[in-house]
Amino acid sequence: MRQSKLFTKTRKEAPADETAKNAELLIRGGYVHKEMAGVYSYLPLGARVLNKIENIIREEMNAVGGQEIRMATLHPSEPWKQTGGWDNIDVLFKIQSRTEKEYALGQSEEEIVTPIAREYVQSYKDLPVAIYQIEQKYRDELRAKSGIMRGREFGMKDMYSFHTTQEDFERFYEEVKKAYLKIYNRCALVAKVTEASGGGFSEKISYEFMIVTDAGEDDIIYCDACNYCANTEVAKNKIGDTCPKCGKENLVGAKAVEAGNVFDLGQKYPKAFNFTYTTEDGGSAYPIVGCYGIGTTRLMGTIVETLSDERGIVWPESVAPFKAHLLLLGEDEKIKEEAEKLYKTLNENGIEVLFDDRSGISAGEKFADADLLGMPWRIVISTKSITAGGVEVKRRAEQKAEIVALDKIVNFLKV
RNA sequence: CGGGGCGUAGUAUAUCGGUAGUAUACUUGUUUUGGGAACAAGAGGGCCGAGUUCGAUUCUCGGCGCCCCGACCA
């Protein structure tokens, strides 16, 4: 992508109406555009990041056997009335058509997925099965806050699994927990698995995946020595206590963001929708249901919050809009030709590169943009670099740069 | 939803009961090019409604919107 053709531009000033770091940097970089409180549009660079995050999640969900679907987000009111959600879920957006017919906007989709599953799951032979989608969700939050971290419209992957036995559910539950940890790891984040309450959702305990950051709105308590971690909502111990799991060290507290959760829903929804299957001995039974969510946009915000520095965003390679940012400095025609050739070579070798080919822009501004936009690798081509023997290559996260010969750069970046 | 703050150009800000200024971004031209360049010219602005006033962007009331704290959070 040529920066001269890029739809968006960076800006020097942070917006006055945002204080969250993720919103400031993403807006300054032209990654997102704010529509209203808690609602953001994702622009070319932002959409690329989101697509990459979604693809990581997609790969891991497929790996545990999830099948991707796309459910409607505009919902009939009937299933919501059937489960009581229409009156009991206060974040449910309810809308009325001009003929006064009532609808709901999807905020989680048990009410939609259960009737669909009922249609296709008739026998124990059809189980277990897991289906998921990655779509926008809508929640009528009283107060949207923290930029893209807590909005009224946001991206979320939601998976639902159906099982014949509690044991089989628990087996799958564990697999998904592992897949989730892989997803965070691939996004350069470290998540702690915490016990939390199921909210109104489930009477059983649920697990949340917490990422420690001051931008988070949850308080957790965890052990430095083992993997014990709990939400203070349900924690039975306090900061400074001994760890109930390993008995060592002192428990510490931290702010964290909930980057995912898994719930044991039991048979609540199958019962509400009279969803039974035929068992091996010819009887009938309700399946056991699990649900598993990860906020994709929140994950993007968390990456910005945890990895950025004072100059801008620092994307991990796995989700960066481009792997490299190629900066052409100066107006020398020979250098320009070399830069064009290099841009072509990088593209031909499958290296995603944003090419700052803008003329009349000072070197300082290009450097500042590169720092703000945060591609993992910065490649500078200029009279100075060519004289030194090639291009100057620097990681966004590091200070030191090195000169790499033009014919070595592809291999250099590939490893 | 309770409390607090704030709405002026694309963005960020200033001043003022009487012509709304600056920076940046934008357009044109010349120069410039390794850490947010220089000069010149150009274009662009008071959230909405009511009230007070000779006159309101400014004061008052109402609405709408945005941010923060709290509460809430499938």
Average of pLDDT? 94
Uncertain segments = none
Under the CATH scheme, which class of the largest domain?
Alpha Beta
The outline comes out as: elongated
CATH fold name of the largest domain: BirA Bifunctional Protein, domain 2
What is the CA-atom radius of gyration, in angstroms?
25 Å
Strand % is 25-35%
Q: Report the biggest beta sheet as strand number plus sense, adding barrel if it closes.
A: 9 strands, mixed
- The total count of strands amounts to 21
Distance between the termini: 22 Å
CATH architecture of the largest domain: 2-Layer Sandwich
Structural class: alpha+beta
Write the layout of secondary structure elements.
Layout lengths: L20 H8 L3 E5 L2 E4 L1 H20 L3 E2 L5 E3 L1 H6 L1 H4 L5 E3 L5 E4 L4 H11 L8 E10 L14 E11 L2 H21 L4 E6 L9 E7 L5 E6 L5 E3 L19 E16 L1 H5 L4 E2 L5 E2 L2 E8 H12 L16 E5 L4 H16 L4 E4 L6 H11 L3 E5 L1 H6 L2 E5 L5 E4 L4 H6 L1
Parallel strand pairs: 3-7, 17-18, 17-19
Antiparallel strand pairs: 1-2, 4-6, 5-6, 7-8, 8-16, 9-10, 10-13, 11-12, 11-13, 13-16, 14-15, 19-20, 20-21
Helix pairs in contact: 1-8, 2-6, 2-8
The structure holds one RNA strand of 74 nucleotides.
